[in-house]
Design brief:
It is built from six helices and no strands. The chain is mostly helical. Helix 3 packs antiparallel against helix 5 and helix 5 runs antiparallel to helix 6. About 6% of the residues have low confidence.
């Protein structure tokens, strides 16, 4: 083998060795998009972002729930009380007013009271006959008895309202305790105040009726005293005196 041939083969071998990296390089080096690169810093940032978004969603849900509960509470506060005792209270007051309106002889009227006292309880007329004095006394007595009867009738009516008031109070207290909102509680409280007002009106009626009866009694007593003085004056007034005459005791 000649030196030229050996040199030629050597050159070919060197060229082959140098050519190997160039030939296998495309197989060993993959394109950049074929690899998945894990970045811990970027991953942590993404987790924090997702957690914050979830927290914001949770806060929004909580806010919506609070708003819904607020609307429910407002609806409860605006709900009207299903129980109303106004009609029963008005009926009780009307019964008491009717009893007062049925006052005998002298009504609860200032003008009529003044007129009655001028006619029946004034000073005894010196020119009135004995029969007129007796009739006036009887009329005053009837006024007194009628006033006492009126007072007792009013008392009986008020006592009859006690049971009605008790039932209404029990129902209103129960409605107040089971009220679902501020409006219902307020309405129940207002009706309890109205019931108290009706009971005070009954008490006022009883006081007025009793006072009327007592006033009539005192007025009759004062008028009777004045009339008694006039009758005593007439009895003691000088007159013709005793006249002798015949008296027949037995029929013959």
């Amino acid at each position: 083998m000649t030196i030229r041939k050996i040199r030629s083969r050597g050159l070919l071998l060197v060229a082959a060795i140098l050519a190997v990296p160039a030939s296998i390089s495309p197989l060993a080096t993959a394109p950049a998009h074929a690899f998945i690169v894990f970045d811990p810093s970027n991953y942590s940032q993404n987790v924090l972002t997702a957690a914050r978004s979830l927290q914001q969603i949770t806060n929004q849900i909580t806010s919506l729930q609070n708003q819904a509960q607020m609307l429910i509470n407002q609806a409860r506060n605006l709900a009207s009380l299903p129980l109303s005792s106004l009609q029963q209270l008005q009926q009780s007051v009307q019964r008491t007013q009717q009893l007062l309106g049925e006052a005998q002889n002298i009504a609860y009227d200032v003008h009529r009271v003044d007129q009655a006292f001028q006619q029946q309880y004034g000073s005894t007329s010196l020119s009135a006959s004995d029969q007129q004095l007796v009739a006036d006394a009887r009329s005053r007595w009837q006024n007194t008895v009628g006033g006492l009867q009126d007072a007792m009738r009013v008392q009986a009516g008020v006592v009859g309202n006690i049971e009605t008031g008790r039932a209404q109070m029990s129902a209103l207290v129960g409605a107040s305790q089971s009220a679902t909102g501020a409006l219902q509680a307020t309405q129940a409280g207002n009706q309890l105040l109205a019931l108290q007002g009706q009971q005070l009106a009954d008490l006022t009626a009883v006081v007025a009726a009793n006072g009327r009866a007592q006033a009539l009694t005192e007025a009759e007593r004062a008028a009777a005293a004045d009339q008694g003085r006039e009758q005593r004056r007439r009895f003691l007034a000088p007159g013709s005196g005793y006249q002798v005459g015949n008296a027949q005791m037995f029929n013959r």
